Fold this sequence. Notes:
The protein is α+β, with helices and mostly antiparallel strands and about 325 residues long. It has helices spanning about 10-15, 40-55, 70-85, 90, 125-130, 140-165, 175-180, 245-250, 305-315, 325-330, and strands at about 30-35, 60-65, 105, 120-125, 185-190, 200-205, 210-215, 220-225, 230-235, 240-245, 260-265, 270-280. Strands 1-2-10-7-12-5-4-3 form an eight-stranded mixed beta sheet. Strands 6-11-8-9 form a four-stranded antiparallel beta sheet, with no helix packed on it. Strand 1, helix 2 and strand 2 form a beta-alpha-beta unit. The chain is globular, with a radius of gyration of 19 Å.
Amino acid sequence: MAACFLPASMASQVQRMLPSSSSSSLRPLPVINLARLSKDPATRALAIQDIARACREQGCFQVVNHGVSKNVMAGAFEAASEFFQLSPEHKELFASTDIRRPVRYDTSSRDGISKARSFLKHYANPLEDWVEYWPLHPPSYRKKMGDYAVEIQRVSMQLMDAILQGLGLRPLYMQEKLEKGVQFLALNNYPQFSHRGDKVGLAAHSDYGFLTILLQSYPGLEVMPHDRDTWTAVPAIPGALHVHVGDHLEVLSNGRLMSLVHRAILNPDEARISIASIHGLSMDEKVCCAEQLVDEVNPAMYRESSFHDFLEFLPSNINNYKRYVESLKIDRA
């Protein structure tokens, strides 16, 4: 499809990495050359169309040529791996059941979806407000993860501008709010699948924010694209970032875009690390349907909500998991 302009060598590599179970009638997950957003107006317009189509038809895509260096991505993986290899005493300094803590480590989640993972979660934007709470061990953690967080925040701003323009909203719509918004990093450590028990590491769910940008060390992420009713493995393309639509983007778009259901499967060959960066507005800033996308024919389909409201929702969702966006839908029957 037109979304990808890769060198022939990389294009063939991507094709080899696509899941072998993919039917020939199903399109591969889009891979988008993000550098096209910085080209001439015509090329940028085509890139925006490709991103809009991927969000609308599949709910996810991967990006290459995004400007995040290999060294920065490798540094993030090194920092995450070294943290998870620390002694329990170091990691348990951040152990807490309080989901409002600025940094939190656990070996099971209180959200009703974790099956087999340990994780470290913390805020990252603006970096200067949060980095002092981050782990001091390993010694390079703050520098390496901080460099990665800043670069991913930049990518998220590029992507949100393109997605919002694809919805017909003006350039730089909500830019100031997005620049000051929440960036929430979730570092996930999944064990190698032992061929005993459940192979699911993280059960099916969608993310609360506008966008999630994910880096995975090995395959294990599976998605349920909108154009098919089957789990699809996301290939771990070297240097690529996976992007998917979150609940608040579904709300903002008034249902024109739908959040992506996804899960994590334990890899039979390797232990696996993923770094998810979730992007939204600030803690108490309400997200509602964009008024430009609401009229008599298309009334607002969702109630407004904030990240704080999402945190209030989580404790009630442990034993009977429900996607957050489902709780926001307005019944117009």
